[in-house]
Structures are given as C-alpha cells and as structure tokens.
C-alpha cells in the first residue's frame, strides 16, 4: 500500500497542490497549465494503479480546464508515448545495450519510432503558447499512433 500511496502522492496530490499554489499568479498573467503524463494505453494485469492515476490525471485536466476557464486560465495535457529517457538505465540496461533495447522497443509502436525528449518539449511549448487560445481541456497524445487501438 505504501507504493500506491507514493504513486498517488506524486502523480495526483502534487499536480493538484501545484495548481492551487499557481492560481493567484496565473489569474494575473492569464497563464496556463500543461500537465505531462503517459499516453493512454491498454490496461494490463499488474498495472491497475498506473491506469487509475493516468485516468485521474486526464479527468483532472478536463475538470481543471472547466473550473479555471472563467479565470482566463487554460489547462491542457501533453501525453507522450515511448520516449527516450533514462528509464532503461533505471531498469539496469547497460549503456552498451541501450541502442538494441530501444530498437526492440521501437517495434512495439506502429510508426517504429521512439519519441525524442525534444519533440515532447516542442509540443509542450505549442500547447502553452498563444497560437491556439481555445485549446483548453485537451489531452494531446504524442505516441506515434500507439494508442490508436485503445
């Protein structure tokens, strides 16, 4: 239960509290919030807690957008799929084995491409920009069509 509580604290309590703390500043600046969390995926045995958190964050983004729109604040989410990060090294994959591991992982998504962190950053910048002022409550999925069957 401790692992579940930690997951909820980090992935739900922190975004909620940060949003509450930022609202006074965002009211003055008419700024916006971009939540970043994993793309939608199939629910798999053993991942119930992750599915719960992911779905809660999606609803938080939509409900937050509805609540904050009257304040002139937008809230959206960017939801990257398989992204080149340090997660493999956290799983004890050696530096020498990384290219082969990522190549195998790339074949698990329809476009056979691992997303680069820079692409995620560009999408966050776009979503946060004034280019689309009516983009509000959106969950922008960036996953090479991996969630297309979900």
Automatic annotation (TrEMBL):
Alphabetized Pfam families for the sequence: adh_short_C2
Family matches, as InterPro entries: NAD(P)-bd_dom_sf, SDR_fam
Protein name listed in UniProt: Uncharacterized protein
Organism: Mythimna separata (Oriental armyworm)
